[in-house]
Amino acid sequence: MQVLLFITGEDVKLFYHVKELQYHAKPERPDPIFAKQLQEILGGQFGEISVALQYLFQGWAVRGNGKYKDLLMDTGAEELAHIEMLATMIARLLDGAPVGDLETAAKDPVIGAILGGMNPQHAIVSGLGAMPADSVGNKWTADYIIASGNLLADFRANLNSESQGRLQAVRLYESTNDRGVKDMLSWLIARDTMHQNQWIAAIKELEAKENVVVPSTFPNHLEKREVSYTLFNYSAGNESATGRWANGPSMDGEGQFNFVENPVPYGNKPKLKPAPPYIHDTLPAVIKGQSGKIPPSMY
Amino acid sequence: MQVLLFITGEDVKLFYHVKELQYHAKPERPDPIFAKQLQEILGGQFGEISVALQYLFQGWAVRGNGKYKDLLMDTGAEELAHIEMLATMIARLLDGAPVGDLETAAKDPVIGAILGGMNPQHAIVSGLGAMPADSVGNKWTADYIIASGNLLADFRANLNSESQGRLQAVRLYESTNDRGVKDMLSWLIARDTMHQNQWIAAIKELEAKENVVVPSTFPNHLEKREVSYTLFNYSAGNESATGRWANGPSMDGEGQFNFVENPVPYGNKPKLKPAPPYIHDTLPAVIKGQSGKIPPSMY
Amino acid sequence: MQVLLFITGEDVKLFYHVKELQYHAKPERPDPIFAKQLQEILGGQFGEISVALQYLFQGWAVRGNGKYKDLLMDTGAEELAHIEMLATMIARLLDGAPVGDLETAAKDPVIGAILGGMNPQHAIVSGLGAMPADSVGNKWTADYIIASGNLLADFRANLNSESQGRLQAVRLYESTNDRGVKDMLSWLIARDTMHQNQWIAAIKELEAKENVVVPSTFPNHLEKREVSYTLFNYSAGNESATGRWANGPSMDGEGQFNFVENPVPYGNKPKLKPAPPYIHDTLPAVIKGQSGKIPPSMY
Amino acid sequence: MQVLLFITGEDVKLFYHVKELQYHAKPERPDPIFAKQLQEILGGQFGEISVALQYLFQGWAVRGNGKYKDLLMDTGAEELAHIEMLATMIARLLDGAPVGDLETAAKDPVIGAILGGMNPQHAIVSGLGAMPADSVGNKWTADYIIASGNLLADFRANLNSESQGRLQAVRLYESTNDRGVKDMLSWLIARDTMHQNQWIAAIKELEAKENVVVPSTFPNHLEKREVSYTLFNYSAGNESATGRWANGPSMDGEGQFNFVENPVPYGNKPKLKPAPPYIHDTLPAVIKGQSGKIPPSMY
Amino acid sequence: MQVLLFITGEDVKLFYHVKELQYHAKPERPDPIFAKQLQEILGGQFGEISVALQYLFQGWAVRGNGKYKDLLMDTGAEELAHIEMLATMIARLLDGAPVGDLETAAKDPVIGAILGGMNPQHAIVSGLGAMPADSVGNKWTADYIIASGNLLADFRANLNSESQGRLQAVRLYESTNDRGVKDMLSWLIARDTMHQNQWIAAIKELEAKENVVVPSTFPNHLEKREVSYTLFNYSAGNESATGRWANGPSMDGEGQFNFVENPVPYGNKPKLKPAPPYIHDTLPAVIKGQSGKIPPSMY
Amino acid sequence: MQVLLFITGEDVKLFYHVKELQYHAKPERPDPIFAKQLQEILGGQFGEISVALQYLFQGWAVRGNGKYKDLLMDTGAEELAHIEMLATMIARLLDGAPVGDLETAAKDPVIGAILGGMNPQHAIVSGLGAMPADSVGNKWTADYIIASGNLLADFRANLNSESQGRLQAVRLYESTNDRGVKDMLSWLIARDTMHQNQWIAAIKELEAKENVVVPSTFPNHLEKREVSYTLFNYSAGNESATGRWANGPSMDGEGQFNFVENPVPYGNKPKLKPAPPYIHDTLPAVIKGQSGKIPPSMY
């Protein structure tokens, strides 16, 4: 890598891809079963596709620029590089993956285990490439991502994503004996450590500016304040009454937690009006238990 | 409501439903357009179905009992009651909703606005009932919910859900002039205030016990510590270098944040091995730019 | 249509398509808003794609041939023809559909209503063709269909499909003033009348052979017979105690309905065992409310 | 369970959860493969989430109260308790589930079978908890549920759900040797027996009031009566002509079934008009087989 | 097959089903693992359901009739017959499929491999029938299909479908030792050969009429011609500069390819305006790094 | 942009983001209705998310490096920049978007049109930001993308994507009067012109190396050659017989096209064997029309 890529700012590209990986992604040996499992942190609910697109969409939506937007773009771009590392690792875990049917499986227990345990789409669909899917084969969906325009809300989403993501990476670390895979996971786990720390720092900063309830810009008096700090007991047993959330000042410092052991309903038994005839719901008479026969003249 | 429902513990039911609502759900007047919008907090990503099932699934998965499980069940059961309030409100907003085509729409601009702006499935599919769907009609999916077995991770998910949910409820509050709808929303917004406070309290308690990085049970030395507190600059501009997340001790107290302006790749340019012939990927020769013709003898 | 298509049985084709429609599909005038609504019975949960593929998949799965399989194939093939009728009608309702933005909409209230009320994908994606989607634009999914290999179960699914489908067609009939559309709907509604009658007839025949509980082949004594005919009261109020389902002989003739007003739990309070350490769930100590700090030696 | 939970009606809660299970949910021994299979009746198309939410949404939409609504709420609340039983059972079947890669699998055939046959998300994602997903890992979706506002239509949906659900529970009963699992399934199967009986009873009552075709409120003469009782032969072979559905009085008592062996089309060959130029569909000239070159002046 | 089905054109049916298969679909022996894999080309992204419905929807949308429409209907109807062949084959591969749990699996490695490797829904849900799903169990969705009203665009979609489809069929051919399965696949592979040839022929014909860029009807001068034939280098390394796509006349004959090694941005750094207060996004002050505290008077 | 970003190759980052846009994305004025429509080419089936991830996944899966991989990475990275342009444009079209209910809508027809025609999630969910969704609100899904490991197959997918994508961009260009939006679209349309040309060039090169049928590596003699070039007439009318695809040498130069007007089935009428009793499908006796009553002893 001796070439001079950018000489001056005039050469600024946009999204720009460099072929080197952020970190090594080389397993000791192929393992198509583990390739299937590893898909979880590539294309699952908290996989790298989710965090990459979540941070980018949050960043693109920031109204006004500054350090929060820059932080989102920095991290979003890094997660794209993580997708690439995982895609590379998975392709290598699939190197030379066998194909076959029951006859093949019956001949050799190890091949049989692979055929039963690998994702068949890794052979049939992607031709031994990684897929934008999770460890059971569900395709990635934007249902997984969150961007609301409110940074405190979204940084909490991000902290959750990095918490779930690191948890899954750690579980995968525990599931493999391959030192190459463990090495790459130790990198991703460390990055998740940073990202949890980073979002906590950003959250604390915003909470100091805005207080802790999102959105901070809704006037308190417009909400039903009498139940803003109340824990209602809707499950038998009152262990929950002993927690911090039921005692002492509320976390936003604007009220006192309290516990209601036997909550009563504040509303009435609802009764909905009949639907108009053109909707053809069950007739009111029938609901009441009477006959719903339409007079023959109607036919 | 004068009947004695439970005399002794022997009469303990399970999930038990009472017909009264937790709080009033009566609009001043029907409004099918707003009914469509209100679906967001019933059946959207952060609607009441999501929080109800998220808390219940987390609660059912707690290994061991105690106050956290009780808290999850209390709150999960309450969210079921919120679904019912919203379902009731939506049905009432749909009271007597008109149906029609362009001819109907052209005759009266207000009817026309309703026909264009309401969700057609409210008439055709549900017969003026609420649907398990969001404000554009996407059906609710369990892709929205999170339950990992790790309570600190999950309480962060919950804090995010209540933050996004309250934000959406507030936006809906701003969108309506109906005092009945506003009244109900002021209840839900207050409950979200409590639920944000409650999860913050629970998170703080767990963080005090476990420190802030999830999962806390993975030995530090197994991760690549040299990058555990580093912000890499992958987006032009270095505004992000000025944040707390790039300076001072890390939030977990176990390192120092640092900023790398010009990060270098730690990995090589990956080169994947060819696939076996039975996979029928593009041949290595073709990838290299040579002919891929198969000798006639192969046919 | 004077040509002789098939001379002898040797010319038997397979699925074979004839260009004529089963029935007319010509609206009086274009109406892009109604085109959007009509999508419901083409590509919605109970639209024609659903019944066509449901009947065909059930038919292909029949183990052994005979009249039930033939009936399924007859009806499945007819539903394919209904898809074509609806696709034709929708394309004609979209004839010359306008496109435009707010400026266009602001100029003419009727055009404005169309732009707001039509499905934008009818212009942008399908180029004024029908889409395999419902009235809010959700794409058709095989989640909608049912085929279990048990004909009594499946015919009940079919009866439901035709009931929901006719209900939706009737609601659409009520929503339009266009005589061409009403004419086509009156055909589809009549066919749904037949199909409801037909599945009822088939169900009665199977129930006479097998009794009413599916599957009939599971020996009674293996189920917990003491609760096979019991209505448990899990919702306050006991109006449900007055129904036929709580009194008299059960519908399968093998028991007596009964009502339990105050049901008690038969099971214990469950307590799950801790997860193994490699799963990294919250530690048992933490669940119990104790510290979850890992000794430094672990790091 | 000695505590007095409710003293008077004033203490009426809403949805209320009691920690005891409706019935035992304890396997003899862990079995992660069966845990995966059992997910089908928790989070599959006809699993307990589906029936719980289906009955609740139907109940909330009933316009007017009475015994049908009460029945729906009773049953919906019970199904919530069934979700809990299954979630508990699945968590216990996952107790101590192993994790690992090919190396682990190759060492011990039984561990290998578990690793290949279990759902990897049970370890990586849920941390040995049940998931809101089916036996292949598809997440639960509200596409599965039905609530139309027409009770006869919806009770048919319910009868189908309980038929498919009991069929699946029976198949799972046949698939396990574990007496604890069989015991729990024998409870669920019995409840499905009740629920089938119950919906049949309710359907019969409504049919007696409304006749059998849904919706009963659409005047007969508006449908194309000449084809309301006709079976068209669209599949070679006429075995279907011998069924009850092709002979004798129709099930609604308003017509005579008949069979048409060689049905003719009632409609013409459709020909759609060209799209406007701004839609950029293929030009009419090109469709006719002529050149579609645009004159250079257009560029 | 001695019966005379159609005597004259007056007997023309619509979609018509004949019970014979287009080609044999009989395996040498059951193989539930292969049944699962074979689902890919029945209900996967490029399975037979996809091509059948894609061609039919394209055909129904053709505005004007003629040879292209006829070709689409011919091929769409054939693909329905392919669904039937695959459904039949899969049902036979499932003949007598075992069910069981870990205990069953542990007793016999071959049964164990089947239980781990088969799709559990083939037993629990479909009762040994084929499902409208792919090889990992994702249900078929209309997200897979394409119909735009522009035939050149759509025939390119079709060529892609037949290319991906044949590739998958070939990979499955390589995966089985069963001569019956191979025989059926050799038929489907040959038909895909025809269908690729056929769409190439149709594409060449349309390209000759319209030139190669879709849509051909958009005047050139309205696009930003200065970048219509430019390859921008957004990935380090310039191997791509050596391809035909970066040198010589463009394929549409209307320009010259060129390569820009160091592309510069043509746009500015975007800065979005603040959202209105009723949206409750993060406040501009907070974005800028100032306090976001709302004055107490607001509460 | 005066800063020197990269001095030497040692500073090579990975995915790297620059804040300038590839091209301007500024509308003349806000238009929330058009913002909704524009979502189609951001998050729809052929939107920029689809092409970005499709090219990147194809690139990461290339086994061996070289110009094809480089081309994929160049283009994939560019599409990321297009997502950013569209996200920026959509946010600006949403500037100051109104919220409101029927009362608000009734007061001002233009506001009413906006409330009816805009995507409500743009206000409630994203806070006036772009969403990863299409023009009717369906969330983006990886079901849209294709990467098979076979470059000729995949480049055909790419050519289709760019054809559908340019068609949609052109339709949107026709739908707006805003010169700023038209300006940006004219850029995207030009880039799609390039990308169509580019994939055509790459396809021609691969076809020259491999011939036209994918995969080229499957020996001809293993497919059923007698039907490799045959058009079967499965739709009444034989206009399709007149096309190039039914006459003359096949496009792969290895056969002759031919047309079969009255195709016969090559397979038999399939008859499936009964399922084993533990599957509880309908009993063979019942299928045959006999009684399915189980002897009482079985209960």
From TrEMBL, chains A, B, C, D, E, F:
Residues at which Ca(2+) binds: D70, D74, N233, S235, G237
Entry superkingdom: Bacteria
One Gene Ontology MF term: metal ion binding
InterPro entries reported for this sequence: Ferritin-like, Ferritin-like_SF, Mn_catalase, Mn_catalase_C, Mn_catalase_dom
Signal sequence range: none
Record text on cofactor binding: Binds 2 manganese ions per subunit. Binds 1 Ca(2+) ion per subunit.
Pfam families registered for this protein in UniProt: Mn_catalase (PF05067)
Cofactor(s) demanded: Mn(2+); Ca(2+)
Binding-site list for Mn(2+): E48, E79, H82, E162, H195
Keywords, comma-separated and alphabetical: Calcium, Manganese, Metal-binding
Family from the record: Belongs to the manganese catalase family.
Entry protein name: Mn-containing catalase
Species: Mesobacillus persicus
